[in-house]
Amino acid sequence: MVELSALRNIGIVAHIDAGKTTVSERLLYFSGVEARFGEVHEGSTVLDWMPEERRRGITITAAATCLPWRDHLLNLIDTPGHVDFTVEVERCLRVLDGAVLVLSAIGGVQAQSEAVWRQARRFGVPTITLVNQCDRPGADYLVAVADLEARLEVEALPVHYPLGEGPDLRGVVDLLDLTAWVYDAQGRESRIELPPEVADEAGVLHAELVERLAEMDEAVLDDLAADRRPDRATLVAAVRRATLAGELQPVLCGAALRNIGMQRLLDAVVEFLPGPDDREPPRAEFLSDGSPHLVPPDPLADVCALVFKVQSLDGGPPLLFVRVYAGIIERGARLWIPRLATHLPVEALYRLHADSTHEVYAAGPGEIVALPDTVGATTGDTLCGTAPGLVLESQTFSEPVLTAIVEPEREIDRAVLADSLARLGREDPTLRVLVDAETGQYQVSGMGELHLEVVENRLREQFGIKARFGVPSVAYREAVLTSARGRAEVEREAGARRLKGLLEIELAPDPTSGRLTIDWAPGVELAAHLRESVEA
Ligand code: GDP
Predict the structure, then answer these.
(1) Start and end of every Tr-type G domain (predicted)?
(2) Which tens digits make up the pLDDT trace of 113-139?
């Protein structure tokens, strides 16, 4: 079992093209290199793995992939980036302890990164930011940092500075101790003294960093008062405390494609992001009497775990990905599923790695493991040690916002269409299927255009039905009154962020009343500076 303080359950959130896939692959690669290095040179793996059994059919696209890093175990949890899949994102955010927001040094904060980031904040998930693609011509790290502060209204704290600009990028400066890391083509890193060409800028940023941390951390302040230069460990502890408290957002830089800064990112995950013991315990309810209960990460308590993803395999039963909150799940045990009022035998427990699967015999609080499902469990189910057990707080789902009329292309498919839509609706709590009493037509409501497109594709590919989707209508509309200045700003913002399926704002200013009509998509909030400019 893994110590709570050595666990990091993290997700990577990003807009498309920021480099989420490249960063994830590099993290898996470099942690693997490290693990193999440990094996060969020290005679042991970084972590004490149980005997392993390989299984085919599972890849790094898994819902959660494990990577060992410097005596820690990181679980990289896949978070879908698109807000149409708000529920998918929320399922994942629930089991995350921390997140890495990946931005591009060229594009900065985009609407999509902003939406997912705001969700992470709603779930209280502390975040660090990587400004990726610092090797691209025209990349400007400090502009990206300023953009982050302006768009996300956070206190961004640069803890890195790029060594070299654009295509000349060759490493990163650690602003905590003013050393630099340089990389060869394979990404092997070496630490060097601060090169003179960045000494001035890095010196100024370091001084600012120390000053800002002294305002919120006594140990740093004490050092300054005693005329001592705070050492790296003191600064790391200060950044960590402020990050966990949501007061600061540490910002790193790098270029995943060129293997620059990836080991630094892994270190930052371990140094600045919380372990399960740093988070508030989740809320649950005893089924026996409905009384509320917090679930602290106690290994001696009854098992309490949450299924956050079901993954089908080619052949064999699907895998349930679960996060354990309390107790220890052991191979051979029987877990109670309150929703199904049935027992699930734990036939095997797996940790998934980039290129292999390890079987483990037990998993304790904070851990993420996969187990075969033989009873029909689903996302959101609580797994308990004993009946009647407790259930983790259920999720509330937002109302669907786009509705389209769906008709089969061939009349003969009507019954199959009804059945298929009903099946999809059972799987996905944000999809609503209604039959119009007068016309007999099917009305399908979802979270956005992309969501409806996915339904259309699945009907065709999975159920063999060609269906016609009518023009979707928006289900949520709000009229706001704004000042002339506010209106100009809302219009500009809406124009800039009008992205397919992400944010549909129809602005129809009424010249007499000054009212604007805004059609909202889910998961989208107006930025605070816009909210302020909207008077009523
Ligand atoms: P995702 O959509 O966020 O998963 O982004 P990808 O990882 O697929 O990257 C999008 C594109 O940016 C791909 O063509 C990558 O090769 C490229 N890319 C990713 N990271 C970097 C980087 O650090 N530097 C440069 N120059 N290109 C990058």
Answers:
(1) 5-277
(2) 777 788 788 888 999 999 999 999 999
- Distance, in Å, from the CA atom of 531 to the CA atom of 536, rounded to the nearest integer, reads 9
- Report residue 111: phi and psi, to 5°: -55, -40
Mutation pick for ligand 1 pocket among 29, 132, 257 (CB with most ligand atoms within 8 Å): 257
pTM score: 0.76
The answer to whether the CB of 290 falls within 8 A of the CB of 261 is no
**Pocket (CB within 6 angstroms of ligand 1):** 14, 16-22, 132-133, 135-136, 255-257
| Spatial distance between the Cα atoms of 207 and 421, rounded to a whole number of angstroms | 60
Instruction: Report the nearest-CA residue for atom 19 of ligand 1.
Output: 19
Measured in angstroms, how far is the CA atom of residue 193 from the centroid of ligand 1?
30
CA of 361 relative to ligand 1 center, distance in Å: 38
Q: Which helix (H) or strand (E) holds 319?
A: strand 319-326
Residue type, 349: L
Q: Is 358 helix (H, G, I), strand (E, B) or coil?
A: strand
**Separation of alpha carbons 360 and 56, rounded Å:** 16
Q: CA dihedral defined by 239, 244, 248, 254, rounded to 10 degrees? A: 70
Q: Cis (ω within 30 of 0) for the bond into 388?
A: yes
Cα-Cα-Cα-Cα dihedral of 43, 48, 53, 59, to 10°?
Answer: -100
CA dist list (Å): 295 to 80, 93, 385 = 27, 17, 13
Give 411's DSSP letter. G
Q: Which stretch of DSSP H or E encloses residue 352?
A: strand 349-352
Residue 335 pairs in a beta bridge with: 344
Residue 281: band (very low, low, confident or very high) from pLDDT cuts 50, 70, 90: very high
User: How far is ligand 1, taken at its centre, from the CA of residue 58, in Å?
Assistant: 24
Residue 515 has pLDDT above 70, yes or no: no
Instruction: Pick the atom of ligand 1 nearest to 256's CA.
Output: 23
Those residues whose C-beta lies under 8 Å from the C-beta of residue 404, and which sit 6 or more positions away, are 443, 444, 445, 452, 469, 470, 471, 472, 473
Residue nearest atom 5 in ligand 1 by C-alpha distance: 19
Kindly provide the ipTM of the predicted complex, given to two decimals: 0.99
Which atom of ligand 1 is the closest one to the Cα of 136? 26
Minimal CA–CA distance to 522: which of 450, 458, 424? 450
